[in-house]
Amino acid sequence: MPFVRSACALTFPSDTEGKVILFSTKTAAAVLVPARLVEDIERGALEPDEERQLADLGLLVPDRETEHREMLAFVSELEAAADTLHLIVIAAHSCNLGCTYCYQGSAKGTGVISPAVSAQVIDFATAAAFDRGLNLKVTFYGGEPLLALEPIVSLAGALREAAAAHGCDFTFSLITNGTLLTRKTAARLRPLGLLAAQVTLDGPAHIHDAQRPLRAGGGSFRRILGNLQEAWDLLTVRINANYGRDGYEACPGLLDDLLAVGLGPERIGSVSFSPISRERRAPGFEGGCRSANEPWVIAAAAFLRGEALRRGYRVDAVRPGVCMVDLAHELVVDCDGSLYKCPCFAGDRRFCVGDVAAGVRDAPGAAYGRDRWRNETCLACPYLPLCFGGCRWESCQADDDAAALACRRPFFDAALGALVRQDLAHPLAARRIAAIPYRPGWTS
Q1: What digits encode the pLDDT tens for the residues 361-385?
Q2: pTM of the predicted model, to two decimals?
Q3: Cα 433 to Cα 26: distance, rounded to the nearest angstrom
Q4: What does each C-alpha distance from 48 to 32, 36, 52, 421 come to in angstroms?
C-alpha cells in the first residue's frame, strides 16, 4: 500500500522557479523540491526511493489513522524518553530593575529561597531524579536570581555533590537581567555546573533603558553589555529581546550595538525575540499584546528573526515544542518550596501542584488544562506539533482561564512560510535531518 501525505506536511512557495518547499511540522524537516513532486504525491505516483526518503523525513506516513495514534502518543513518548528532570527554581522574587511591563506587577515580593527550602529541594531532586537514575537540569529564575547568589552557590554545590554520589549529571543555567552577571560571579558559578545564561535586552539603549531602568535610578543597558564583554567566554550567553507594539522596528539596533562592542555571533550563543504581553498585574503598560495572533506580532516575528540571521546570529529553529505544563519531568519550584507547572503562575495558589516537602499531588495541572489539545479541532490541525493548544498564560490573560485554548493558527497561517524560508536560506537556523540522500533536484 503506498504512503500518503502526512497531515503535518505543508507546502510553501519558494523563490526558486519551478520548486516548492515541503515542511513537516512534526519533524521540522524542510526540503526544496520540484513542484511536480507534490503532484506525484497527490496522485500516488512517486518512485519507491522518493517515497521512502519522504517517509524518512516524516512528510509521508503509512496512513492517517496511524499518524493520528502517533500524535496522541507524542507527549507520552517524550516522557518515556526523558533522562533528565528539569526544575525552574525561583531563587528570589526581588529584582533590581523596575521594568514598566513586569508580569509580577504589584505582586512582586522580596522572598529569597531559604536554607530549609534548599534542603527540601535537594531531597526532592534526589527522590525524583537521582534515585531513579535521572540527570538534573536547573534553571535559576526570579525576580533577579543573582540577588540570591549565596543561596544559589550553596544549593548548586549540594545538588552537584548529590548527583555525583548517584552517578548522575547536574547542570544549571540562569534567566537573568544581566546586571549582576560579572566575570567574578560567572567564574564562581561555573565549577558548580553553570552552563548558560539567558539575558534580557529590550532593543538598543534608548528603548532598553526606558523599559528596564534600574530601581535605584538610571539605565541598565551599558552595565549589562559590559558584563557580557567580560564573562562571555565562561558560559553560553543567549540574548532574548522583549519587544512591544511601538518601536519593534528599532530592535535590530540592539544587534548592531552588540556587534559594536565585540559581542558578535562567535560570542553569543543565540538571539531570540519575544513580544511583551499586556499583563493584568501591570495595567499601566499599553504596548503589549493579548494574543500571538495580533498583526503586529506576526509582522515582527519574521522581521526580527531575519535581521538576526542577516547579521550572522543563531536563532531558534522552527521545530515541534511541548509546553512544560504537559510534561511530568518539568516543574517550577517557588522560593517557598511550592510547586507549579509554569513560572508565570508562581504565587497564584490556584495553580500550585504540590511542594518539595510532600511532592507532586495526584493528577497535577488540572487548573492548567493539561492535555487540552486532545480534542477534535487540535488533532485535525497541521500546526498541532508547533502549538499543542497555545500558551496557558496567554489564555489566562485573555479569559482568566488557563485551561482555555489559545489557538495560534492565525499566526502560523500568516508567518510560518516566511520562517521556514529563512531556515532554508540560512544554515545557522537549520536543525533539519541531514543524513538523507536526496534525489537530484532536491535541496535540504
Answers
A1: 866 568 999 889 999 999 999 999 9
A2: 0.91
A3: 12
A4: 19, 16, 6, 28
